[in-house]
Specification:
Elements: E1 7-11, H1 15-27, E2 37-41, H2 47-55, E3 64-69, H3 71-75, H4 81-94, E4 102-108, H5 117-123, E5 128-132, H6 139-151, H7 157-167, H8 171-185, H9 193-199, H10 202-216, H11 220-233, H12 240-261, H13 268-275, H14 279-282, H15 285-289, H16 294-312, H17 318-330
Parallel strand pairs: 1-4, 1-5, 2-3, 3-4
Helix pairs in contact: 4-5, 6-7, 6-8, 7-8, 7-9, 10-11, 10-12, 11-17, 12-16, 16-17
Length: about 325
Amino acid sequence: MSATPQFYIFHGDDLIRRGEALARMRRSLGEDGDLNRSEFDGAVTPLPEVLAAARSLPFLADKRLVIARGLIGHITRKGAGQAGRLAADRLIEELPRLPEFARLVLVEDDTLSGSNRVLKAAREMSNGFIGEFKKPQNLTRWIQQRAKAEYEAEISPRAAHAIADVVNDDLLRADNELCKLVAYVDGERPISEEDVAVLTPYVPEANVFEMVDALAVGNGKRALELIQQSLRDNPRDPGFGLFMLIARQFRLLLMTRDHLDRGGGAQPSVLAKAVGAHPFAARKLPAQARRFQAEQLDAILKRLQRYDQDIKTGRIEPRLALDLLVTSLANE
């Protein structure tokens, strides 16, 4: 591999690190970078146009940066046909011939398969660099590490858990929430779970767990208190958003109960994949699901579907639907 690669392949779903790598390359062009940078949608722009841009002499500089997004995935996708095969052959042929001043960056949002023919060929070339950017397996740890490394801030494990629970593997949203929280505490103290509750939609979702627990033991009074608290904390929500969170929670509980009854594992990673929940949230689901019979959960979901239809057709207000739901479940 050469000391200064002429082409780069950045692939993977960690758009934060991938985006930071691209930003560094843009900054390396200096103040007049716009004069020597071209960016293309590789699914739209023909390959010859991308290659021509990479071969164009830089203007009063020693390198030219060309970024093409989705090009490899487009020409090697299933169904690309003869045109795709010819384009892949052309790209493989031209990559080793790029001029010294070229910096061609091929960006893919998804992780390329190890059998991808362009990727396989690129690995054998001496003038390229391949960067794979995978999402972190432990989002909570990633949030804690990023707070310290990127923002020079401290965040409690519970606060990091709370953010991870809310963003559902969305790294960009996690980073946005973290950025807001860093500005909020302004270095005066570590970020706490209470801070997360103030600045993110965490409180309604956290309250839903406690609300469902209260309903499971017939404590309608506590469930109504939590509904009122959630609506106070989110004055823009007339109740429909909270209603949808509750419906989602009962769907997860029914899927969890079904998964467990069929002998499925209760480990967070296994359960999260089976029901489509975040691993942190999946830790709480088994205990809560066991508080209900499968028949109860099925009946509750049917009731929620009826209320949902009534809300959408204007026959009932969301807040009244919530009150009726809590009253009916607490009396069962």
